[in-house]
Amino acid sequence: MTLHENEIGVDEAVVRSLLREQRPEWADLPVSPAGAGTDNTMYRLGSHLLIRLPRTPDNAKAVQKEQTWLPRLAPHLPCRIPEPVHAGTPSSAFPLAWSVYRWIDGDEAGPGSVTDWPAFGADLAATVQRLHSVPLMGAVRQGGLSWYRGGGLGACDRWISEYFDTCGTIPGLDLDLAYLRHLWRSALALPEPSGRQVWLHGDLKPTNLLVQQGKLHAVIDFGCLSVGFPDAEHAPVWDLPPGARQAYWDAMSLDDVTWSRARAWAIAVGVSGVAYYWDTYPAFVGACLSRLRAIT
Question: What would you give as a GO molecular function for this chain, any one (predicted)?
Answer without folding.
Answer: transferase activity
